[in-house]
Amino acid sequence: xxxxxxxxxxxxxxxxxxxxxxxxxxxxxxxxxxxxxxxxxxxxxxxxxxxxxxxxxxxxxxxxxxxxxxxxxxxxxxxxxxxxxxxxxxxxxxxxxxxxxxxxxxxxxxxxxxxxxxxxxxxxxxxxxxxxxxxxxxxxxxxxxxxxxxxxxxxxxxxxxxxxxxxxxxxxxxxxxxxxxxxxxxxxxxxxxxxxxxxxxxxxxxxxxxxxxxxxxxxxxxxxxxxxxxxxxxxxxxxxxxxxxxxxxxxxxxxxxxxxxxxxxxxxxxxxxxxxxxxxxxxxxxxxxxxxxxxxxxxxxxxxxxxxxxxxxxxxxxxxxxxxxxxxxxxxxxxxxxxxxxxxxxxxxxxxxxxxxxxxxxxxxxxxxxxxxxxxxxxxxxxxxxxxxxxxxxxxxxxxxxxxxxxxxxxxxxxxxxx
Length: 419
Ligand SMILES: Cc1cc2nc3c(=O)[nH]c(=O)nc-3n(C[C@H](O)[C@H](O)[C@H](O)COP(=O)(O)OP(=O)(O)OC[C@H]3O[C@@H](n4cnc5c(N)ncnc54)[C@H](O)[C@@H]3O)c2cc1C
Hints:
Layout: E1 10-13, H1 17-26, E2 33-36, H2 44-48, E3 57-58, H3 62-67, H4 77-82, H5 85-94, E4 99-101, E5 106-109, H6 114-127, E6 131-133, E7 138-144, E8 147-153, E9 158-160, E10 164-166, H7 181-188, E11 193-199, E12 203-205, E13 217-227, E14 230-241, E15 245-247, H8 249-263, E16 268-273, H9 280-293, H10 299-303, H11 309-319, H12 332-343, E17 345-352, E18 360-365, E19 383-385, H13 399-417
Parallel strand pairs: 1-2, 1-10, 2-6, 10-19
Antiparallel strand pairs: 3-5, 4-5, 7-8, 8-9, 11-18, 12-15, 12-17, 13-14, 13-16, 14-15, 16-17
Helix pairs in contact: 1-6, 1-13, 9-12
Flavin-adenine dinucleotide is lined by residues 13-19, 36-39, 44-46, 48-50, 54-55, 137-138, 167-169, 172-173, 177-179, 181, 359-360, 387-388, 398-401, 404.
């Protein structure tokens, strides 16, 4: 436990990647660093990351890296200048953990286990003599005359301190400990919180009269999202059907914008183009060829050459064409209807999955209230923010964790060095 008398120079709240890195960096300048975490262990969300493999960063160049953030990415320039992907990779290498680069520059530990990342951080906390207080919940800040003066613990104790780094994370996957506490304290101490929304989240489809082919992954398809007659976004990539709708890399990447349109009460439809490389004309010619070559075969067997069987069944059900119709009996009208579905399989988006299920929280402490050179609050002296609780978010690919590590590093250093 932390005694009432503790006059620590710096208290860091939250032992996720941002808080652990803040503590490690701060301890290089001052011996008095306390890291408070309400769970019994650090890095609960980090352990889940990258499906348990932890896609810790991305090995692309700074300008490409910044493009993968939503509008606010430029805010991170100073943090990335201090501590970027090369430094993060080196940090782990120096401590005996080799990282490897996979497709699309995604960086993972060679062990393929996020636990190895957490282990290195835990060991370093010990080595750096950071005082860790696990199973301790902070429940408020003490601010006097525009300066931080302490943190209040759930036990009622107040720990007096003149520098506090908040690293309490966002609000999703709350069972890991990220319950938005820091956002609440930031708001209570006069900071603006930009609206909290889900990011990197799957989409629910309005019920159709067929069962979605759950688990079916489709590569190189185009998703075309539209509202009314207006196409609003269209990109090629990989998706997966789930029991409730659609997910997968392309859906997650586009989901933030779609979530905003849904919040704006727009009715959104999605069309899946299963053959984006072929024009309608080319596709119709290909069908004609197949139907001629395989004239005596059942239609479902012919279409299997173009689509997974589970989708063929859904197609033929939707078009009300019997699966055993012979290819040479398919009418021109039916052929055109098949092309229509192949080029634009239409589904209505009902909503996003709940905020709780999103991989990332969009919104958070407004960047107008944070100095990007130090991560210090512009409203409360001695208070610093880092990690997912600030209003930056990015695509999948290791960008969010790098942002947490980099902002943590900068916040820890700034808090330790400020007078
Ligand atoms: C399923 C999943 C997979 C992901 N995979 C990846 C990936 O592969 N690559 C990537 O870049 N990003 C990934 N992310 C996102 C990434 O994990 C987060 O952005 C990152 O963990 C945020 O770090 P943080 O330190 O800001 O917050 P968190 O990791 O959320 O840590 C916050 C900590 O603060 C503690 N805390 C909160 N309130 C209090 C309190 N009142 N008192 C004391 N302690 C408190 C919490 O218990 C928690 O330990 C993934 C997210 C999810 C949900």
